[in-house]
Amino acid sequence: MDELCIVTTGGTIDKIYFDDKSDFQVGEPQIGRILQELGVAFRFNVIPILRKDSLHLTDEDRELIRDTIAAQAANHVLVTHGSDSMVATAKVLAGIANKTIVLTGALNPARFRGSDAEFNIGTAVGAVQCLPAGVYIAMNGRIWNPEKVRKNVSANRFEPIV
After folding, report:
1. What is the pLDDT along the chain (162 residues), one digit of tens a residue?
2. How many C-beta atoms lie closer than 10 Å to residue 129's C-beta?
3. pTM (2 decimals)?
4. Which single residue of 57, 104, 127, 138 could bond 61 by disulfide (Cβ 3.0 to 4.6 Å)?
């Protein structure tokens, strides 16, 4: 892997909490800071294209994500994305030729202690370097085929479709 291309779309991984408000807002992408702090031994390029909760992503947003990835020279692409509609976006990205694309995110904001963000990013970085071309989801310590996984909202985790 010469350079990892990272496309950020928002989601819980980038959410921040304001004391004077009752809800979260999507802030600056956190993945570049996380990778720098971890001292990774590869080059990466962060392309922030959206700052949305994944429940608010539209078909047009998904096409923008697809077009952005398809336009990159890099063959290894990591996408940070909200977990609620990650599977839907992964399915839209299927068919982009000659690229290994791994979507990941977090069930708790990266800025929070105990967040799964760093673990999921690490899993995704390992996956994007090792897997053949295709589209994958890295969540909950596993690599998932988007056609065979769903988010269990009540349990707040990804699980196989049975």
Report:
1. 889 999 999 998 998 865 555 567 788 899 999 999 999 999 999 999 999 999 999 999 999 999 999 999 999 999 999 999 999 999 999 999 999 999 999 999 998 889 999 999 999 999 999 999 999 999 999 999 999 999 999 999 999 998
2. 14
3. 0.94
4. 57
* DSSP one-letter string for 56-120: G--HHHHHHHHHHHHT-S-SEEEEE--STTHHHHHHHHTT-TT-EEEEE--SS-TTSTT-SHHHH
Instruction: Compute how many other C-beta atoms are within 10 angstroms of the C-beta atom of residue 41.
Output: 5
Alpha-carbon gap, residue 145 to 148, rounded angstroms: 5
